[in-house]
Design a protein that fits this description.
The complex is a heterodimer of chains A (111) and B (119).
Chain A: E1 4-5, E2 10-14, E3 19-25, E4 32-38, E5 45-51, E6 56-59, E7 62-67, E8 72-77, E9 86-93, E10 100-101, E11 105-110
Chain B: E1 4-7, E2 10-13, E3 19-25, E4 31-38, E5 42-51, E6 54-57, E7 65-70, E8 73-78, E9 87-94, E10 109-110, E11 114-118
Parallel strand pairs in B: 2-11
Antiparallel strand pairs in B: 1-3, 3-8, 4-5, 4-9, 5-6, 7-8, 9-10, 9-11
């Protein structure tokens, strides 16, 4: 049973616009959430994270929002750039245990 | 040099062969992981180790074994490879997940991946 779900396999946006990537989870015990970015032929790299005690975390163009009641988090990228084109993985952990990853969303930012 | 190094980067083998994928890290992290990536299935955890004497199964450990030879080395073995083990394999490391002052430090640092093809 998948505990972390990314229901959109792909997303395409225009350069300069907002990209919104979504993630849902089923385990209410998760206390930390992360987003990873992966380019082809490279390993995933950490992008941004949020603790369950917060509802928003910003880092430059990247903002993660957490809605605990809905068990939903989202990653906003504003403005989107062609270099942001990659696969984005949502991940969650509980009590500092191992991370559980979603299946990923492939973002394409068109010039 | 990469902080997390995987060898080999690419390997083609035949059904029934034994394969070992090796991972070494220079980050000084205690925790090491092996993940598998398949198209449309994301990253799935095979095995993980929180220190040299600790080995734990992940969600898809059947058909795999691991060895933690040292803090810096964690190898993954396929004793008798089969075609559905064709995938991209990633090693990752992390520090203890909560550092000083309770700050979360558990981001995973991934290697560049090992692409395995089993014919």
């Amino acid at each position: 049973d998948q505990q972390v779900k990314q229901n959109s396999p792909s997303l395409s946006v225009q350069e300069g616009r907002i990209s919104i990537l979504n993630c849902d989870y089923t385990n209410s015990m998760f206390d930390y959430f992360l987003w990873y970015k992966k380019y082809p032929a490279e390993g995933p790299t950490f992008l941004i994270s949020i603790s369950s005690i917060k509802d928003k975390n910003e880092d430059g163009r990247f903002t993660v929002f957490l809605n605990k009641s809905a068990k939903h988090l989202s990653l906003h990228i504003v403005p989107s750039q062609p270099g942001d084109s990659a696969v984005y993985f949502c991940a969650a952990s509980y009590l500092s245990e191992k991370l559980v990853f979603g299946k990923g969303t492939k973002l394409t930012v068109n010039p | 040099d990469a902080d997390v190094t995987q060898t080999p980067r690419n390997r083609i083998t035949k059904t029934g062969k034994r394969i070992m994928l090796e991972c070494s890290q220079t980050k000084g992290h205690d925790r090491m992981y092996w993940y598998r990536q398949d198209p449309g299935l994301g990253l799935r955890l095979i095995y993980y180790s929180f220190d040299v004497k600790d080995i734990n199964k992940g969600e898809i450990s059947d058909g795999y074994s691991v060895s933690r030879q040292a803090q810096a080395k964690f190898s993954l073995s396929l004793e008798s490879a089969i075609p559905n083990q064709t995938a991209l394999y990633f090693c990752a490391t992390s520090d203890r997940l909560v550092g000083l002052a309770g700050a979360y430090t558990g981001e995973l640092f991934f290697g560049e991946g090992s692409r395995l093809t089993v014919l």
